[in-house]
Amino acid sequence: MGQIKLESVTKNFGPVEVIPPLDLTIEDGEFTVFVGPSGCGKSTLLRLIAGLEDITSGTIRIDGEDATDIPPAKRGLAMVFQSYALYPHMSVRKNIAFPMKMAGIPADEQKRRIDNAAAALNLTDYLDRRPGQLSGGQRQRVAIGRAIVREPAAFLFDEPLSNLDAALRVGMRLEISELHKRLATTMIYVTHDQVEAMTMADKIVVLQAGVIEQVGSPMELYRAPRNVFVAGFIGSPK
Ligand code: ADP
Ligand code: MG
């Protein structure tokens, strides 16, 4: 379960309309990428879905249910931030356990989920280290582990790889795609990187100034960009 539907969603910051009325359906299990230049509203849109920011008008539905007034912790979604969002004074194990502790999940169930997440992310040997003792890629895996243990209906990634160097980014891209295949959970992935979008997405949402310019598979956008902006952004020959 993890269908997310935005119906005429808008967002104003003071007098500025950052998101004009926007409609979008993300199907359960889909890997959707929001792509567009800096400042086009990608993070804002993700934060509205997560509930970290209130929408100005419209409706957000999760699996058909109106989630507009549901607080972030109860939406069943897990946001993955850049790796620096880890707690430096806590071990990897405690970092991963933290959201479960907040949710009051029993200790034995916490342990089971941590062991599973660590195995899936190759972190089993690092559970007692602190984030400062890990590589950038390992820290990013811990941030993903912290999302996995919540068993969310959807994962929301906001430029999770932008802190990593180019070589590491390619590896982590593959790892996240593998994870998506294994979990078959809805993932929304924000990036300004066209290559990331084209290689990872089932569906790409191209944004410009808060407006959806086009939605489609990487191949659809490449073959039939709707306008010059999409063509230019996707690197299509048109
Ligand atoms: P992106 O993630 O695509 O780079 P953002 O969603 O961060 O873009 O920002 C979209 C627009 O909204 C930008 O013009 C930005 O300055 C503005 N914005 C974002 N957050 C706030 C805020 N809390 N208050 C005022 N303006 C904001
Ligand atoms: Mg952003």
TrEMBL record:
<protein>
    <submittedName>
        <fullName>ABC transporter, ATP binding protein</fullName>
    </submittedName>
</protein>
<keyword id="KW-0067">ATP-binding</keyword>
<feature type="domain" description="ABC transporter">
    <location>
        <begin position="4"/>
        <end position="234"/>
    </location>
</feature>
<keyword id="KW-0813">Transport</keyword>
<keyword id="KW-0547">Nucleotide-binding</keyword>
<comment type="similarity">
    <text>Belongs to the ABC transporter superfamily.</text>
</comment>
